[in-house]
DNA sequence: GGTGCGTCCTCACGTCGCGTGAGGTGCAAG
DNA sequence: CTTGCACCTCACGCGACGTGAGGACGCACC
């Protein structure tokens, strides 16, 4: 079972040119070529194309789509789950917009006028804004940051929730150690720090021990991190840093 | 109350360059310029920008957005209604995709494999396909067709439903005349034909009497039209054509 | 009174995801 | 045998901006 460009274009609802383009940029190379040099797509290619079109539909640039599809730790099921998550996120966003439009209709009936900021609330408040800017200033050119951007772009709400839960749980285990009076240089604390590092690797970016140590120091030196972490329990940031540094030294 | 590019870009969540671009192409000209040549946006400009971003978000090309926004028979309320309609359509589509993904997950669990066509059903069966192609062949280069494409692009499901109802109602009134034995050249039939023509003007494209006459002839000469029309009542297509031709002659 | 700095301006070229010919090949049917 | 169709490879075009380059304006602080 193999198909020509025309056939594939037919049931995928794209043009032949699009398939040529995907071949050119290496996003979808047909499994084979006929003797005459004609592209021949097999079933696996169709599956891949389906995924490509799905992510494209949701606005991902083709380059990112390629990264997603070639990521070895995303199997077919994981893709379906992720797709479902992305869809529900998107639906939620549109429903909020619809609700905002309804409110606007109400407001107009009553002759209310909105402030400039309010006028754009339709699009949802994605406003880490000035903070985001500083992040770009400090980290924009590093590899780790770029990788994080790439990976988190396709995270759904459920993904974020899971990551948050993981982090909370880890925090609680650190707090338990602190409460028990276990020193941050102890085996147990260092093991937790190691788990912390691996969590970052899984969810955000490749984080070696050295980078992890930098991160730990910043948890204390940058008060915004400190405050945020200490919300779970005062002193946690400092304890975390010490455990991280001890763990880094152990592996260095 | 007037705002600089930077401010507007700020609360609209777009770049300054985007605003420059919209100015260049005439989509959003700021209400005024300062002495130094700086763009100054007023409240009306903000409203317009909000609409622009809304339609852009739903994937309209900027040129079409301009047409929509400058259409004099779309007042603010109408825009809100249309926006709401477009949103619900979109949500419906995404929900269907989500459902399809769920089915795919089920299918995968049971190890079923899908045929190539089935694989792409996720994207909803928009398959006037070969028919669509012929339409393009025959009408692709005419002004009326382009106008129709432009206008129907922003129609929501509700719009289509309304248009369908209008058409059905008109059909029934024609059938009543036929049943009563009224000739298609009668005043009553010609008036209905005129109403039919004006319906096309409102909902699809500028349709003069001459074009209308062509259309009428085609209703009989192209059997696909004939069959479709005669589903409402046998002989309707021919009767419709005769009434249209009589009406066209009356106005010619 | 200079001297940064931040925001604004206008070119003008670069990018992404294709669309759209132009010109040529391989092969089946009339 | 040639006509037609589906395929091929360049290669330029386009929409919606991104991204500097190079310069003007305004204000704040030394």
Pick out its properties.
Multidrug-efflux Transporter Regulator, Chain: A, Domain 2; MerR-type_HTH_dom (chains A, B); 2% strand; DNA-binding; DNA-binding transcription factor activity (chains A, B); flat; DNA-binding (chains A, B); mainly alpha; homodimer; 252 residues; DNA-bd_dom_put_sf (chains A, B); Globin-like
Task: Write a short abstract of this structure.
2 copies of one chain form a homodimer. With 252 residues, chain A is mostly helical. In chain A, 70% of the residues lie in helices and 2% in strands.
Contiguous low-pLDDT stretches of chain A (5 residues minimum) are none
Q: Give the name of the CATH superfamily of the largest domain in chain A.
A: Antibiotic binding domain of TipA-like multidrug resistance regulators
Count of folded domains of chain A: 3
Which percent bin holds the helix content of chain A?
over 70%
Mean pLDDT of chain A: 84
Major sheet description of chain A: 2 strands, antiparallel
Number of helices of chain A: 13
CATH fold node name of the largest domain in chain A: Globin-like
Could you say which structural class the secondary elements and strand pairing of chain A correspond to?
mainly alpha
Oligomer: homodimer
For the largest beta sheet of chain A, what order do the strands appear in spatially?
1-2
For the record, the CATH architecture of the largest domain in chain A stands as Orthogonal Bundle
